[in-house]
Amino acid sequence: MKAKVYVTLKPSVLDPQGKAIKHSVQLLGYDGVSDIRQGKYFEIAIEGQPSAEQAREETTRLAHDVLSNPIIEDFRVEIEE
Amino acid sequence: MKFGVIVFPGSNCDHDAYHVLSKHVGQPVDFIWHRDTDLSTYDAVIIPGGFSYGDYLRAGALARFSPVMNSVKEFAAKGNLVLGICNGFQILCEAGLLPGALIRNRDLHFICDYVAVRVESTNTPFTHELKAGSVLRMPIAHADGNFVCDDETLDELRRESRIVFRYCDREGQLTESANPNGSRDNIAGICNRERNVIGLMPHPERACEDLLGSSDGRDVFRSLAGTLATAA
């Protein structure tokens, strides 16, 4: 079982890295790109055969406590069986 | 009075802090390894600058889970003094001992330069021997020093006079160009509600000898020592 966690900066938080990437991308000619925000992606290998429900619960806690800083980041969990 | 300087894997300003406490404050200091949990013999603890855990995940994000940090939380809850410098400030925010967060500098560069900060509150154990409104020259060296917090937190910090240092120009004016990293409200350092925990991005421990460019940081340590001397 694999858990995937996507961590993104809250919309209200400044993302200078995303902005820098967007500028470079626009310079390359990608005209249709109006904004880019950079986030993080984690893949977690889960042992012990829990239910998808349990895995989601555990991963959500992990994402909240460690993988993200709730003051500035949001996260989303996906479970892959 | 006894001081402790916490050392995480990746801390690199621990020796500067040790040197200042030992030579300029002239008091017993110990290095405290991040796995040690006994802080009972210390009166004040410094969380120094550096790149604890390589700043992996987020600056200070992993250090806050080191065994010593549980002890620091208890130590602070009892009213003892905790000073977080640069990475130390980041760790204190990640650990929830101070509000807000430090994110990537507005202009994306790692900035290694002198800045001027204005003393906004002398009502802390770390600044009571300084003059309100005075301008201190101290070095900064960071890529993630942009202090952010929500409106509610900012109101609270202002209302409770918990903004201790703000970036300013040489005349003490709070301008945008004087703000090196985009920090909200030019905030360079804050304290907790109980005023025993402080975090700041500039390095006062690197500004204690004129030979190194500034000795303005000495008063921060003199205030700290002064508080402990009075309490004793």
Question: What does this 3D model show about the protein?
Answer:
- The complex is a heterodimer of chains A (81) and B (232).
- In chain A, strands 2-1-3 form a 3-stranded antiparallel beta sheet, covered by helices on one side.
- Chain A is elongated.
- Chain A has helices at 16-27, 52-67, and strands spanning 2-9, 39-45, 73-80.
- Chain A is an alpha+beta fold.
- Chain A has one domain (2-80): 2-Layer Sandwich (Mth169, Chain: A), CATH 3.30.1280.10.
- With 232 residues, chain B is an alpha/beta fold.
- Chain B has one domain (3-231): 3-Layer(aba) Sandwich (Rossmann fold), CATH 3.40.50.
- Chain B is built from 5 helices and 11 strands, in the order βαββαβαββββαβββα.
- Chain B has helices at residues 14-25, 67-77, 87-94, 151-159, 218-231, and strands at 3-7, 29-33, 44-47, 81-85, 101-103, 111-119, 135-142, 146-148, 163-168, 187-191, 197-200.
- In chain B, the strands form 2 sheets. Chain B has a 9-stranded mixed beta sheet with strand order 2-1-3-4-11-10-9-6-7, sandwiched between helices. A two-stranded antiparallel ribbon of chain B has the order 5-8.
- Chain B starts with a strand and ends with a helix.
- Chains A and B meet through helix 1 of A and loops of B.
